## 1
Amino acid sequence: MFTVWNEKKVRTPERSKCYSLEPMSMNSLDTESLTSYIQRLSEAHSISVSSFVKHLIFPTLYTDKNQDYSENDLYRVYYKSYSINGFNQQTSFFLRALKELTNRRDLKSLSWLKLSPLLTIGDIKVSRNWCPACLNEQKNENIIYEKLIWSLKSLTICLKHNCVLESTCPNCTNEIKQLDLYSVIGYCPKCKGWLGSNMVVNNNTNEENIVWQKWVNKNVEDLLKNEAVEFVDRDFILNKVSHFLSRHFNRTSNPLNKLAENMNYDRCTLTQWKRKAQQLSFESLLVLSYCVNTPIEVILFRENEINIKHISKFKNDLIKKKSYITLTTEEKRNLLYKFINSNEYPPLSLNEVTKQIGYKSNESLRYHFPAECSLISSRYKEYKSKINAEKVHLAKKAIRECVSTALEEGKVLNHGYIQSKVKIGKQFANLEIREYIEGILEKNKSYYE
Ligand SMILES: [Zn+2]
Ligand SMILES: [Zn+2]
């Protein structure tokens, strides 16, 4: 006979409005950034970032009809998108909305909120930065994402690939915002070009820069792991730095001006820090800690362990300027041959190759590598003329079809008629097309006479 079912009430987990997409590389220095997560989440729902922000993010937080938002508020998201990964209101705004949409509670670590007492607005990069080699690797693994650490101003190279982080598109040379209306992860929102490349590996040849960047990485890693950081405020930092300077730098042992000189800072700035009269940026704190060979975490939380043995010199050019790609002539030649032998289609123009190798103009590249350059440009010309020939061929075909329809229907055939029917735009100005049309009109003249 039938058994009686013991019906237990099944508890279904709470449903979220959006997929509860898992962020990449959580709890590591490679953690995904919030802007990257927004792009991936939009993509997972097959909608543009613009629609995602407009129809999901904003309505989630502006539920009150009286408290409406304007187009301008929406636009500001992109204009100030650098602050989404940061540590201010904009960050909290997106975190609240995303938490509600995805039911995830672990998204805070995709921003710099945890280190907010240590950061000033200048510590976060305004435009998007990325490691082209990381992107290329990720593409092969089928999951592309951007790392939060790339948005920190003091971080300028990828230690994994020893290459300079890029901030301009290699195809159209535009700077890219952290988030744009139609951002697609790994691609330029302006020209839709791919931002990855494996040609950049080891383009950082500055040893000192590597030491400095390792210091930056290590300090950020330690601070992110430290549980006390979240509970301190800006005054705490000011006090600790002031205390540190007063205790270890005085006229007899270590003069403050010697430290200032090694840091490449103005002495007055350090005096101000000592008096708690001026806020330090995170970058300044990194430089200070680097020069005294004492991690920030030790200065702030373990002052009894401090033992300054010597003061290192900090080279100013490590932070002031973007480091340009510096390759030897031989390395440049090898790179040129990589481009020449590559089967990439369409082939790169000489302009594009010049940019990727790090030369400012074609002339200087041609001067050093005339044969290689003419190979590259002739291949590109060949490609262009092939494309043009195809276009002309298609245009002529469209004109022929238009003419035969006109004749069949007994229409009056002239320039105006053809131009109104054949949609080839600028190609009407092409000499070959113009002559072709003249020829056809001439041939059919007798038809109307
Ligand atoms: Zn990398
Ligand atoms: Zn571009």
## 2
Amino acid sequence: MALDSLFLHETKKRMISELLDKYINENSSEEDNNLKELYRETQLKVLMPHMCSGHLQGQLLYLLSKISRCKNILEIGTFTGYATICMAKGMLENGIVDTIDINRELEDVCQKYFEKCGVKEQIRMHIGKATEIIPTLDKKYDLVFIDADKANYAIYFDLVFDKVSAGGLIIADNILWKGEVVNEKKSKDCEAMHQYNLKIKNDSRVESIILSLRDGLNIARKK
Ligand SMILES: C[S@@+](CC[C@H](N)C(=O)[O-])C[C@H]1O[C@@H](n2cnc3c(N)ncnc32)[C@H](O)[C@@H]1O
């Protein structure tokens, strides 16, 4: 294809994709006002704000937590707590979300919005390295959301597997790595995402699907 028509083709593709994103946003359930505020505060005040789940992914996690009637949830990678709140809102009353982050500086903003969103009592924040904290958690989880350092995704899966109830979900974020997973040459983090996807596909103990929502989610259900 000539360069100028390739450019037009790509521009048109991008415009369609932006219009579709807008359509999907406008025609899914409205974002809660406190979550809107948290998203905005994250964008304005926190380093690497793109890491925040945001409305559509948050809404999916909320619905999965609700449909699965989750009682115990584990999140690896809290950041500013957007997904934590969505999952807590979806779970059964008296359910608990254990959420782990290595960065203590994010705790204040998290606690502020846990309170504002009325889910403070349902969330236990654990500060430290996930590989050290997970083995100390003695519970069965209905849903695990893996969303921290990419190199450790496979290790997190192995560490949590026996703690997940039969029928429980293990959801991993960023597994398409902005589309880079299809490239022959991959960055280190992208290769880790690719290896994670292969590992899940080849694990007969789970059934799974990859969704291309946002940066890609790998959803595995323990048989
Ligand atoms: C992509 S953000 C999480 C986004 C959040 N789940 C959301 O949906 O908005 C990744 C987080 O993982 C944390 N993290 C990175 N390495 C970690 C580790 N080894 N143990 C625990 N947390 C870690 C980072 O501090 C960061 O806040």
